[in-house]
Amino acid sequence: MTDIMIADEDAWTAVLARDRAFDGRFVTGVLTTGIYCRPSCAARHPARGNVRFFADGAAARAAGLRPCKRCLPDDVSRDERAVLAAIGAIKAAGQPLALVALAAETGYSPSHFQRIFTRHTGLSPAAYARALQAERAAGALSEEGRVTDAIYAAGYSGPSRFYAANKERLGMTASAWANGGAGMTIHWAVVPTTLGAMLVAATAKGVCRLSFNEGREALEARFPKAELVEGGAEFEALLGEVIAAVEKPGDFAHIPLDVKGTAFQEAVWQELRRIPAGETRTYAQLAAAVGRPKAVRAAGSANGANNVAVLIPCHRVIATGGGLGGYAYGLDIKRALLDRERK
After folding, report:
1. Residues 1-35: pLDDT tens digits?
2. Does a structural domain hold residue 96?
3. Domain finish residue from 178, 194, 212
4. Which of 337, 297, 319 is nearest to 210 (CA)?
5. Catalytic positions, written as ranges
6. Of the candidates 48, 67, 86, which is a domain's last residue?
C-alpha cells in the first residue's frame, strides 16, 4: 500500500461495498487492465490478486496506470476537495483543530462541513484527529525505544493525555503495546462445554480472547511476548462467569473485556452487545445501526474480526435473506447459541 491511512483489508472491504465514504482517501489500481478507480466505482470487481491500492491518482499514474473513464477518479468534487484539505491540515497539525477554523478554510459553515466530513470519512473532524493520533501512537510505540518518547512522537502533549485518550481503546498498557505483549500477563484455560472445547484468556483488565477449538498456540500468535499463565486463582472466578454466560445465556454485560480495534470495529462491537438475547439482526441492520448503512460488507468484516465470541455476540447477526450467514467456529455452534438464547 502507498501511504494510505487504512489497512489493505479495510480498503478492499470498502471496494467490495462500493463505499463512497472512502472516495478521495485512496484509489484502486487494477494491474491487469492498467486502470485505477474510485473505491465506489460501479464497474465489475476485479480479482483481489490483481489489485493494488494507491494514496491518490498521482501515485497510481506514477506506477503506469490510467484513470477509469467510468468513475473519473481524478474528478474530485468540491466536497471531496474540502475534506481532503481538512485531512491534510489535521495531519500537518498532528492534533485536533477547531471545527470553525477548518470550515473557514473550505468556505463552508461549521455545521455543513461537519456533515460532509463525517459522510466522507465516517468520523467527525475531531474524532478523525483523535484516531490519527492513536494510529501514530501505535506506530511510534512499535518503533521508539522508550514509551515516553513514543508518546511525544505521536503528537500528544504528555503521557497523561495519551493514557486519558487511549485507556479504553488500547486495553493493554502502552509498554505492552510497544513490545508485542512483553510485560503483560495473560491467564488462560481450555475448558469443556456443551459446545465443545472453549479457550478463555484474560488480562488484568478483562477477557481478551474467547474462542472454540483453539489452544495456547492461538494466544502465542497474538501475544508472542506476553507471559501466558494457565489457570490461576483469581482467573478461576472470571472463568466461571464466562462458562455460565455460554452455557446459560443471559446478561453478561458485567463481564469485563480487554479488546481493541479500529473506531468502526469498536462501534460495531458495541452495537452487537446491544442486541438482546434471543434476537438477531442482519448485516444491513448492523451497518445502519452504526450510522453507515452502505457499509454492509465493512460491518461484516468488523463482525468477523471479533476476538471475544459470545460475550460480543457476533452469532446474533444473520444474512439478509434469513439464513445463518457465516461463523468463525462453524454453523453448528452458531445455531446452538441462537437456539438456547431463544429458549
Report:
1. 445 557 788 889 889 988 776 777 789 999 999 99
2. no
3. 178
4. 337
5. 37, 314
6. 67
